[in-house]
């Protein structure tokens, strides 16, 4: 479906839970986020996907919170993968439960995976995520690769004074592995003064990172994502920069989001979304759900603000799923 600015909207991101077993410093800068008690059920997720597909959605990403804390994750993957018209099914995870679930999710129809990994140093991992689990996540990445989930992407939120000195180490991963690395600019999340201070202190723009890698060559256009991709000479995989702060990619935005609370969000930086729960009950016709999705698509703003107004209107990224 085309939105009012002529963009094709074919990508739906669904946050299937707000719960997470990590507490990453940049995701919950206001402290522990209390998750909603009842995330969407398998049936509700499937119904949203069917309505989306009827409007031209072909790509789905499951996110969270941490999607793999749901013990029905394989069932969710299977339910979404079997909806006719879903051409691409991906998932974003912190990797903690990946060794356990990667083979079953691949069998159930998951195609590809993004793994969030913000440091390659065991000693830093716990400071960033609140949990000492570097080795476990690394095993998860290897399990995903063995399960054939490809392309496999490693997402690192770049933060001055926290991990920005690891850019070369991350870049080197693409020489030895078929793992695409994406550096994400830090986005301001949270409502407290300390959340704002965290952002001001640790934000680093993508060009500053890119300048540290003078050998990067522009890669051919790769995938549908917002990353600009490059490659080191003879590298097996690409390096990308996702720049919501310094250079927005709103003109190419092709997505809408469903939160774990059942709200539909047209823009990550917009309001907290339209409530969808009312039209998700079984008694309400599929067309009512489609109408609501169409309204959300038509309400997509042309772009989000940069500069001082650039902000996510929520307490934690786990509400929206990134
Ligand atoms: N638990 C999963 C994970 O760790 O990937 C999925 C949810 S997480 C909220 C989705 C993505 O949002 C992750 O790649 C994470 O790094 C990113 N993210 C969270 N807070 C962010 C922030 N303040 N700025 C930039 N990216 C952020």
């Amino acid at each position: 479906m085309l939105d009012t600015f002529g963009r094709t909207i074919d990508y739906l991101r669904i946050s299937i839970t707000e719960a997470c077993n990590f507490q990453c410093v940049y995701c919950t800068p206001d402290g522990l986020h209390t998750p909603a008690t009842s995330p969407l059920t398998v049936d509700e997720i499937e119904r949203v996907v069917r309505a989306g597909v009827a409007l031209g959605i072909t790509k789905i990403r499951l996110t969270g919170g941490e999607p793999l804390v749901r013990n029905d994750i394989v069932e969710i993957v299977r339910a979404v993968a079997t909806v006719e018209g879903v051409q691409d099914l991906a998932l974003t995870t912190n990797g903690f439960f990946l060794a356990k679930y990667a083979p079953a999710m691949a069998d159930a129809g998951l195609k590809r995976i993004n793994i969030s990994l913000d440091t390659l140093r065991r000693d830093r991992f716990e400071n960033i995520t609140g949990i000492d689990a570097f080795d476990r996540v690394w095993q998860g990445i290897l399990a995903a690769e063995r399960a054939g989930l490809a392309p496999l992407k490693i997402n690192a939120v770049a933060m001055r004074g926290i991990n920005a000195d690891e850019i070369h180490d991350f870049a080197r991963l693409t020489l030895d592995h078929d793992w695409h690395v994406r550096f994400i600019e830090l986005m301001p999340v949270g409502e407290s003064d300390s959340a704002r201070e965290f952002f001001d202190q640790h934000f680093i723009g993508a060009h500053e990172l890119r300048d540290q890698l003078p050998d990067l060559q522009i890669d051919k256009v790769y995938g549908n994502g917002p990353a600009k991709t490059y490659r080191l000479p003879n590298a097996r995989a690409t390096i990308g920069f996702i720049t919501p702060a310094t250079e927005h990619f709103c003109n190419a935005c092709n997505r809408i989001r469903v939160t774990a609370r059942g709200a539909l969000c047209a823009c990550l930086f917009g309001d907290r979304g339209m409530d969808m729960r009312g039209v998700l009950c079984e008694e309400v016709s599929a067309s009512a759900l489609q109408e609501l999705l169409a309204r959300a698509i038509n309400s997509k703003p042309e772009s989000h603000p940069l500069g001082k107004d650039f902000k996510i209107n929520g307490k934690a990224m786990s509400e929206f799923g990134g």
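The longest helix spans residues 42-54. DSSP finds nine helices and twelve strands in the chain.
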